Each structure stands twice: as C-alpha cells, then as structure tokens.
Amino acid sequence: MKKNIAVIMGGFTSEYKISLKSGSIVCKNIDKKIYNVYAVHIFKDKWVLVQNNKEFSIRKDNFSAKINGESIFFDCVFNAIHGAPGEDGQIVSYFELLGIPHTSAPSYQMAITYNKRDCLSIIKPYGIKTATSYYLNLGDTINQNEIVNKVGLPCFVKANKAGSSFGISKVFKIEELNKAIEFAFKEDDEIIIESFLDGTEVSVGVINYKNKTTVLPITEIISENNFFDYDAKYGGKSKEITPARISKKEQIRVEEVAKKTYEILKMNGFSRSEYILINDEPYLLEINTVPGMTEESILPQQAASAGISLPELFGNAIEMALTNEQQKMK
User: Which residue ranges of the chain lie beneath pLDDT 50?
Assistant: First the structure.
C-alpha cells in the first residue's frame, strides 16, 4: 500500500516564495508509483492541502485533511519550508509530538543551526574555524568604533536567524554600518556582524544517504555582486561550479570538516554549509538544514554530480525518515 507523503512549503518569513518553488519541485519529483504525494501550504493564517487548485483545511490537532469526505493522514512529512517555522525547529517539534516522521534533523538540531550565534558557539570548541564575530540585540547601544575594531572593514552584517541572504549587507565604510544594522533588524531582532574572509567560497551538501553520512560534490561560488546575495543566488548573478575547482588537499579538508560538523551537531536529513577557503583551511559561514530544491538550487546540482537523481534524493530522505521513526519505537 502506498504511503501518504505531505510536502510542506510556505512559511512565515521572506523566504516563503522560494519555499513554494522548492516544494513544487519536490512534489513533481517524488516517485508517484511508490508514494501518494500531497502539497501542504503552511502560513500564519492558514494550513491547507492544495489539490487541483482547491484548498482543504488541515486539522492541527492531528495534521490530517478531509477530501470529499475521506480523511487523509500522513505517513511522513517532507519539510520544504525555508526559515520559520520549518527551519527553526517549530514545525518539527509539532510533528515529533504527533509521532509523524519527517525528513529534517531533530527539532533541537534545527533550532541550533537556524541560530547562527548558537551554532558557532557549539562548533568552535571542536576546532572548526569561523570568522571573527560581534553580536547585537535590538535595542542595544551601537558602538561603531568598537564593532570595527573587532571585526574590521569590510565586514558583513547579517540577521542572526534568516536565510537566502535576506537581511545581509557588506559594509565597506564605517558610515554605512548603521544603515546595514537597521536593514538586518528588519528580518530579526538579533544580528551578527562578521569579519570579511578573503578566499574561495564553497558550498558543501552533507546528507544521510542510505544510512551513511555522505558529503556531496563541492560547489564553488563565484558571485558577480559584492557577495553571494539574494540576486546572485536566484537572479543568475553568480556562477556555481560543481565540482569546485579546488586542489585535492583542499577538497579532502573541506569534506573532513563538513562531515565532522554534521556529526558534531548530530544532524540528520539534508544540510548545506557555506565555507571560505583560506590557505587550504575552510572557515564555516553558516549551515542550512532546509536547502533550496529549485532548479537554481545548489544541493540538487551536487546530487546530480554524484549521480543521484531528484527522485532518488527525495525518496531516500523519506525512507530514512521512516527508518529513523521505526528505530525510535524499538
């Protein structure tokens, strides 16, 4: 009997449009011979199953829907929500309470990796290199000289909990700092200011593939803009070269660090991490636990380079989620 799979998409942040694109690609590429696939849109004002341009309300007490009098329950949830509540642990906690398997890491891991400050504080003691950083909460006194003295110029001002480069600016002059801080606070009430790392930028996908932590082929990022911003990611203003044009020594080191980081954080499911390579050593920028699955997205490119098709990639995620749930019940 086919299992019912809910592909959740949408969300509560600026990333919802990208999430809808990712979710539609996932729905299109899950093998319909094996699974019944349902698109579920999650927004603040409504949770609905969408079928043939019709919307059917989702019951939040048990995450089910009723279509033409028939109740639909789900055997597994494929999480394609970028940002809150998909990537910060909220929706995952809900499914864990209901006992519904999902394709993401556990809720605690999702919450940690979504919070850049918390994630960096955990991995630093393990020798994972990162940029020098300075933190601000909304309402804090802003001492521009103190910030620049610590991180230098140019620097990056980022929303602490956001993705797809929303709320991020590259600052070249101290006079630009306040404007960048205001821009970041529009996305989050916490921000992180980091030193500029001058090196080769690479993106590394690490997934649980057939019960094994697997590092996918590395992608080199070359942005036409000042950095790999939203326009570069989704507007065609960048080159993404897979496999990356790096030395064998650099490749081995990046793979080692990416795998170590995934396992230190006790991750599961999908992840895509960004690194800057300086003198053969990778410096971690951030980790994404619900990476994009659109045609422009990096992780599907990496999977293809590894010989893994989208149906195989998505089917594996579902099967790993179902297997993990079965192991919990033993």
Answer: 164, 227-234
Pairing of strands 155-159, 190-195: antiparallel
> How many whole angstroms separate alpha carbon 136 and alpha carbon 117?
10
Query: What is the structure's pLDDT at 17?
Result: 93
Q: Taking the mean position of all CA atoms in its chain, how far away is CA 15? A: 11
Q: Which helix (H) or strand (E) holds 326?
A: helix 310-329
What pLDDT is attached to residue 234? Answer: 46
In the chain, the domains with their CATH numbers are 3-103 (3.40.50.20), 112-129+197-323 (3.30.470.20), 132-195 (3.30.1490.20)
Nearest Cα to 100, choosing from 67, 58, 69?
Answer: 58
CA 41 to chain centre: 18
Question: Between 177-185 and 144-151, two packed helices, what is the crossing angle to 10 degrees?
Answer: 90
Question: H helices then E strands: how many in the chain?
Answer: 10, 18
3 state SS of 228 = coil
The confidence score (pLDDT) of residue 14 equals 83
The first and second tokens of residue 141, run together, are 């006194």
Q: Are strands 76-79 and 3-10 parallel, antiparallel or unpaired?
A: parallel
Per-residue pLDDT tens over the stretch 143-160: 999 999 999 999 999 999
39 exposure class (CB count in 10 Å sphere: 0-12, 13-18, 19+) = buried
| pLDDT reported for residue 93 | 97
Reduce the DSSP state of residue 60 to 3 states and report it. coil
Distance CA 206, CA 269 (A): 8
Report the run of H or E that residue 262 belongs to, with start and end: helix 248-264
SS3 213: strand
